[in-house]
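Exercise 3.2. Students should predict the tertiary structure of the chain below and write it as structure tokens, then compare their answer with the key that follows.

Predict this chain's 3D structure.
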Amino acid sequence: MNIVIAPDSFKGSISAEGFCNIVEKTILELDKDATVHKVPLADGGEGTVEALTYNTGGKIKEATVTGPSGKTVVAQYGILGNESTAVIEMASASGLPLVPQAERNPLITTTYGTGELIKTVIAEGCQEIILGIGGSATNDGGAGMLQALGFNLLDDQGEDIPWGAKGIAKLASIKKDQVAKEVTAIKIIVACDVNNPLCGPNGASFVYGPQKGAKHDEVIWMDQALRHYADIIQTDLGLMIADTPGAGAAGGLGAGLMAFLGAELRPGFDIIQAHSGLEEILRNEKVDLVITGEGEMNHQTINGKLPAGVSALAKKYGVPCIAFVGNIGDGAEMVYDCGLTSIFSIVPGPRTLDQAMANADSYLYETAQRVLKLWMIGKDELK
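Answer key:
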């Protein structure tokens, strides 16, 4: 029996690596001679650093940086096994969970700490950065990040603009003569699964501003601030960024990364699976089953989410693929078209969210045991 385990994390309860360990334990209890390939994955959000360092034999490190509200936070980053590529989750430095709900205010939150993390890995000699930008607390267009990297973003008095959306509304000019050559030379690949433009009804402010604490009138104001930001970028850098797909990701961080640092945006799953060796395993091994999973599978899963990508790869190589999830949401059946064979919720019955998350490890173990026992019987009968 040869099984691949390639899940996303269950946010807040089971890491992707933890999922792999639990399901591996179940498999080996049922068949001690089974071959198990553990490939913990992520799609650019939570778990990206862990997944890439695990799959490449890299190292996870920490750095003290400026959090989104200006307080210092300890952020994680990874150095991959090749020692020349770093992986950063911007949420570790500038993410929404770092701001208490009552204090969330994208008018003043900053990406400065993300810039500090980039400086840290440049100082380590890295030549490439994989940057996951999900889960931001900010709406500053990446201005704070750019200030940390040495760009001068100035108001009409020639003074540095303040942090947050309030700052970019005051932007009058951009100076980059003090930016170190190492900053502009490093290659940045952004793991991004959204195509939102910077401004407008589908832009950063209107779509994501409310979840970051912005009221309706503030959303309108922030959209205008980002449009002004785009106008200054066009005037000073000669780049039209406002309508570029992905520019609105992470409160406009996508725009800042592309316009100032020449970053390339790619689907998160594509980046991470390419470093994981998952396709090589499916191509070269006689795999009997692929197991994937995520916290909730629903209609959004087909839009570049990790289980859809894993299912498509399994289908490409003619391998059945099943998913263990916390919740089966509306439209989850659409993932069958990607190649998924079946979906199983690990929650055994009515539970509160807190109960489900607190017991997720045992629920996953018990569900995997029941499903794999049945799968093994069916497999044996087909011989």
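Discussion points: Residues 48-268 form a domain with the Glycerate kinase, domain 2 fold (CATH 3.90.1510.10). The chain has a mean pLDDT of 94.
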